[in-house]
Protein backbone atom coordinates (compact mmCIF):
# COMPACT_ATOMS: atom_id res chain seq x y z
CA UNK A 1 0.00 0.00 0.00
CA UNK A 2 1.30 3.45 -0.95
CA UNK A 3 -0.10 6.86 -0.02
CA UNK A 4 -0.69 9.41 -2.77
CA UNK A 5 -0.39 13.10 -1.95
CA UNK A 6 -0.13 16.21 -4.05
CA UNK A 7 0.00 19.92 -3.31
CA UNK A 8 -2.20 20.43 -6.41
CA UNK A 9 -5.37 19.84 -4.37
CA UNK A 10 -6.56 21.20 -1.03
CA UNK A 11 -5.25 19.33 2.01
CA UNK A 12 -7.39 16.66 3.63
CA UNK A 13 -9.82 17.95 6.25
CA UNK A 14 -9.28 14.96 8.52
CA UNK A 15 -7.08 11.95 9.25
CA UNK A 16 -7.20 10.34 5.82
CA UNK A 17 -5.06 10.12 2.70
CA UNK A 18 -5.83 11.94 -0.54
CA UNK A 19 -5.39 8.60 -2.26
CA UNK A 20 -4.03 5.10 -1.75
CA UNK A 21 -2.48 2.74 -4.27
CA UNK A 22 -3.08 -0.88 -3.35
CA UNK A 23 -1.79 -3.31 -5.94
CA UNK A 24 -3.21 -2.19 -9.29
CA UNK A 25 -6.02 -0.18 -7.69
CA UNK A 26 -6.07 3.52 -6.80
CA UNK A 27 -8.64 4.67 -4.24
CA UNK A 28 -9.22 8.44 -4.16
CA UNK A 29 -10.83 9.86 -1.04
CA UNK A 30 -13.84 12.11 -1.45
CA UNK A 31 -12.85 15.37 -3.09
CA UNK A 32 -14.80 18.61 -3.33
CA UNK A 33 -14.76 21.64 -5.60
CA UNK A 34 -12.41 23.83 -3.59
CA UNK A 35 -9.91 25.52 -5.90
CA UNK A 36 -6.41 24.75 -4.56
CA UNK A 37 -5.11 28.17 -5.67
CA UNK A 38 -7.79 30.29 -4.01
CA UNK A 39 -9.13 28.04 -1.25
CA UNK A 40 -12.63 28.95 -2.48
CA UNK A 41 -15.29 26.94 -4.28
CA UNK A 42 -17.38 28.16 -7.20
CA UNK A 43 -20.99 28.98 -6.41
CA UNK A 44 -22.70 26.81 -9.03
CA UNK A 45 -22.92 23.08 -8.53
CA UNK A 46 -21.82 22.53 -12.15
CA UNK A 47 -18.62 24.53 -11.59
CA UNK A 48 -18.07 22.76 -8.25
CA UNK A 49 -18.41 19.42 -10.04
CA UNK A 50 -15.86 20.41 -12.67
CA UNK A 51 -13.40 21.61 -10.01
CA UNK A 52 -14.02 18.44 -7.99
CA UNK A 53 -13.15 16.31 -11.02
CA UNK A 54 -10.05 18.44 -11.66
CA UNK A 55 -8.98 17.77 -8.06
CA UNK A 56 -9.59 14.04 -8.54
CA UNK A 57 -7.56 14.17 -11.77
CA UNK A 58 -4.63 15.81 -9.95
CA UNK A 59 -4.52 12.98 -7.43
CA UNK A 60 -4.77 10.40 -10.20
CA UNK A 61 -1.91 12.10 -12.04
CA UNK A 62 0.19 11.92 -8.86
CA UNK A 63 -0.62 8.19 -8.80
CA UNK A 64 0.54 7.80 -12.41
CA UNK A 65 -2.88 7.42 -13.99
CA UNK A 66 -5.77 9.53 -15.33
CA UNK A 67 -9.55 9.97 -15.21
CA UNK A 68 -9.81 7.69 -18.27
CA UNK A 69 -8.95 4.79 -15.95
CA UNK A 70 -11.78 5.42 -13.45
CA UNK A 71 -13.83 2.24 -13.06
CA UNK A 72 -16.27 3.46 -10.40
CA UNK A 73 -17.33 6.72 -8.80
CA UNK A 74 -19.58 7.75 -5.95
CA UNK A 75 -21.17 11.19 -6.12
CA UNK A 76 -22.59 12.78 -2.99
CA UNK A 77 -25.03 15.67 -3.49
CA UNK A 78 -26.60 17.87 -0.84
CA UNK A 79 -29.59 18.41 -3.15
CA UNK A 80 -30.77 15.82 -5.68
CA UNK A 81 -32.34 18.69 -7.63
CA UNK A 82 -28.75 19.36 -8.79
CA UNK A 83 -28.54 15.92 -10.45
CA UNK A 84 -28.89 17.21 -14.03
CA UNK A 85 -26.30 19.97 -13.59
CA UNK A 86 -23.85 17.49 -12.06
CA UNK A 87 -24.45 15.03 -14.90
CA UNK A 88 -23.78 17.73 -17.49
CA UNK A 89 -20.44 18.68 -15.91
CA UNK A 90 -19.55 15.00 -15.32
CA UNK A 91 -20.31 14.13 -18.95
CA UNK A 92 -18.17 17.04 -20.21
CA UNK A 93 -15.19 15.96 -18.07
CA UNK A 94 -15.25 12.18 -18.56
CA UNK A 95 -15.61 10.12 -21.71
CA UNK A 96 -17.37 6.92 -22.69
CA UNK A 97 -17.44 4.29 -21.49
CA UNK A 98 -18.38 6.15 -18.31
CA UNK A 99 -17.40 4.61 -14.98
CA UNK A 100 -19.91 2.65 -12.94
CA UNK A 101 -21.46 5.20 -10.58
CA UNK A 102 -23.59 5.68 -7.52
CA UNK A 103 -25.16 9.06 -6.75
CA UNK A 104 -26.78 9.77 -3.42
CA UNK A 105 -28.20 12.77 -1.60
CA UNK A 106 -26.65 13.53 1.77
CA UNK A 107 -27.79 15.99 4.42
CA UNK A 108 -24.47 17.84 4.36
CA UNK A 109 -20.78 17.53 3.56
CA UNK A 110 -17.76 18.27 5.80
CA UNK A 111 -17.43 21.69 4.15
CA UNK A 112 -20.37 23.89 3.07
CA UNK A 113 -20.34 22.58 -0.50
CA UNK A 114 -22.83 20.90 -2.83
CA UNK A 115 -20.93 17.91 -4.25
CA UNK A 116 -18.23 15.42 -3.28
CA UNK A 117 -16.85 12.64 -5.47
CA UNK A 118 -14.74 9.60 -4.68
CA UNK A 119 -13.33 7.24 -7.34
CA UNK A 120 -11.61 3.91 -7.80
CA UNK A 121 -9.17 3.35 -10.64
CA UNK A 122 -7.59 0.21 -11.98
CA UNK A 123 -4.05 0.99 -13.10
CA UNK A 124 -2.69 -0.68 -16.18
CA UNK A 125 1.06 -0.67 -15.80
CA UNK A 126 1.18 -2.56 -19.07
Automatic annotation (TrEMBL):
Domain of life: Archaea
One term of GO molecular function: deaminase activity
InterPro entries, A to Z: RidA, RutC-like_sf, YjgF/YER057c/UK114
Pfam families recorded: Ribonuc_L-PSP (PF01042)
Cellular component aspect of the GO annotation: cytosol
Family per similarity comment: Belongs to the RutC family.
Protein name from the UniProt record: Endoribonuclease L-PSP
Originating organism: Halorubrum californiense DSM 19288
Lineage: Archaea, Methanobacteriati, Methanobacteriota, Stenosarchaea group, Halobacteria
